[in-house]
Amino acid sequence: xxxxxxxxxxxxxxxxxxxxxxxxxxxxxxxxxxxxxxxxxxxxxxxxxxxxxxxxxxxxxxxxxxxxxxxxxxxxxxxxxxxxxxxxxxxxxxxxxxxxxxxxxxxxxxxxxxxxxxxxxxxxxxxxxxxxxxxxxxxxxxxxxxxxxxxxxxxxxxxxxxxxxxxxxxxxxxxxxxxxxxxxxxxxxxxxxxxxxxxxxxxxxxxxxxxxxxxxxxxxxxxxxxxxxxxxxxxxxxxxx
Length: 241
What we know:
Blueprint: E1 3-6, H1 15-25, E2 29-31, H2 39-47, E3 61-64, E4 67-70, H3 72-83, H4 90-114, H5 127-154, H6 170-185, H7 187-193, H8 198-209, H9 211-217
Parallel strand pairs: 1-2
Antiparallel strand pairs: 1-3, 3-4
Helix pairs in contact: 1-3, 1-6, 1-9, 3-4, 4-5, 4-6, 6-7, 6-8
């Protein structure tokens, strides 16, 4: 049976980290909310179920047969070995999971640049606070997180071609997406800081050239970044300072 991925229709968002792994592996999967006749209603049916024994709280979640797995890092920890995108060594699998959880922390901070007060409010309702939050994010948090990931890939005992171990893992794919998203949301800030993360950016470029990823990026399955997702480009929030 095909894997079933549940995420908001029309958004890359957190679901994209899972899509990249499935696409790289050439896995058989269905993006449920984009399926005619199913859509978002199918996702909400599971989330609001009164009988499902493992009801998910929020998307993304993955269905594999009778099993429902929620949360990006948890999904990738499950899928990694099945798709050949996790280290063979069990200890290194936990290292990879730790890195993915750090990506999760970073993505939460990216989201908060445009929704710093209340997720239920529109961006337009919190623009002054978003501008202050984004300035701090660009000044302090981008260098903190990307500096850490640069150090991790550079100091990988197996070599600087991958985040962990000596072969491609889902963490490499996720860091590709992080760089893509930040470059969309904060092009001025990223242009200024590029030279600080050469090993990480080289990793990004290698991932982009992988045959399955390159085909995916050129296909209609790869949704465009937009101002409804996690990575949003509001020019007033971007700065090269």
